[in-house]
Amino acid sequence: MRRLIGMVLCLAVAAGTARAQKATLTVTNPLDRARPDAICIGPASLLGEHARPGAYTGVTETGETVAVQVDDIDGTGTPDEFVMVLDLDAGASRTIWVDLGRPWEGSSRVDVRTSWRWEGYAALETELQAFGLYGIYAPLDFPPSLQWDLYGKRPEARGLSLDALEPVNYHEDNPVAVDYLLVGQSLGLGGPILGKGRPCHGENGSYVYREICDGPVRAGLEVVVTGWSTPSGGSHHAGMQYFVYAGHDFIDAGWTLMPPAGAGDNFGVGIRRIQHPEMFLSSDREGILATMGQQEGIIGLTGLAVIFEPDRFLRWGVLSDGGDSYVVYLTPEGQEDRSFYRTRLVGLWSESGIATAETSAEHLRDLAQRQHNPVTITQ
270: closest CA among 239, 256, 291? Predict the structure, then answer.
């Protein structure tokens, strides 16, 4: 009898554990337009106490399997967020059953490297686009500026390809991809600016890279800078987090400054001017700063954009530091001892099939609407 009772208790515990390892989620699109590859981010607590960093299998109400990635963003060993990518109809909700006992066995759609092409040149990648960051060690006579280079993939070459891209000569046309910005030509996306200049000149500050997460849905990189001097004589510690997502052509970027920037050192994000622009957009109402056109020596039309929260807009600016940049200055979020800023950094390339000069503004407005109206996730 005792043995029978013990077996029943064991079975009950096992059944309870199995149930605890599964979570039911409802994902809702608040927009009145469809969202293909919608980025769905929620707190890890929605998955229950058994959630651990890693990638798990989710099943939708239609039987589709999706990757559900659980990340420890702050590096404490405890999961903070989960993320998945789903197609959502306008104003619609979907149900996802997440099985924490079933690891994801599908492929990854993103990648991150802390050293790529040379030591200290970091990279993030999705199937659509790759990004390279000048931060710690830049080529000779090219100061680290924490701005991103872009590498556009032709439709026939989409997929993860950092290894294949590494030996490519980006000053020449090639069948894999074209470097939008021609390495060394001082063009870039998302360079941080404090006041009237870049806070980073040559050997300025001490840099540390940390890989935050690496797929299959999201890849992330953190850069921590100590002793970051400003042109006006200020000094800060700074943390920057950059994320890319499966199926998308942008970086979600967040910057933290300690102590907060003063009035003379307002924080801004820059994009380099296009030599022959065919599109320029600056809208504090929509939260978009963008330009697109023809760059000498680059195949096809290229574009750069910063998407930001409209209620964080402070002012526009133009910076001349060896190559003119358009700048959007932002007001911070955060506490008394630190300030936080967030933007979405977008690259456009006509040959990628994602956007042309005519459709780039529409594409950016769609991305801005998605950023300003995130999906909601409930149990």
Answer: 291
- Give Cβ neighbours of residue 40 (< 8 Å, ≥ 6 apart): 27, 83, 84, 85, 86, 375, 377
Q: What is the pLDDT of residue 11?
A: 40
Rounded to 5 degrees, what are φ and ψ at 78? -110, 135
> Which residues, 6 or more positions from 322, have their beta carbon under 8 angstroms from its beta carbon?
186
- Mind listing the pLDDT tens digit for each residue in 106-152? 999 999 999 887 777 889 999 988 898 876 555 555 555 688 888 87
Measured between alpha carbons, how far apart are the two ends of the chain, in Å? 40
Bridge partners, residue 347, by sequence: 304
What the chain holds in terms of domains, given with CATH numbers, is: 21-106 (2.60.40.1180), 110-377 (2.70.98)
Tokens of 327: 């700048």
Taking 50 as the pLDDT cut, the residues of the chain under it are: 4-19, 186, 201-203
Query: Measured between alpha carbons, how far is 150 from 126 in angstroms, rounded to an integer?
Result: 12
The pTM of the full predicted model, rounded to 2 decimals, is: 0.90
Q: Nearest 5 degrees, angle CA 129-CA 296-CA 359?
A: 50
Residues 339 and 255: their CA atoms lie apart, in Å, by 8
Alpha carbons 192 and 232: distance in angstroms, whole number: 15
What residue has token string 């080529």?
Answer: 139
pLDDT per residue over 83-119, tens digit each? 999 999 999 999 999 999 999 999 999 999 998 877 7
Helix runs in the chain, H state only: 2-20, 162-165, 360-372
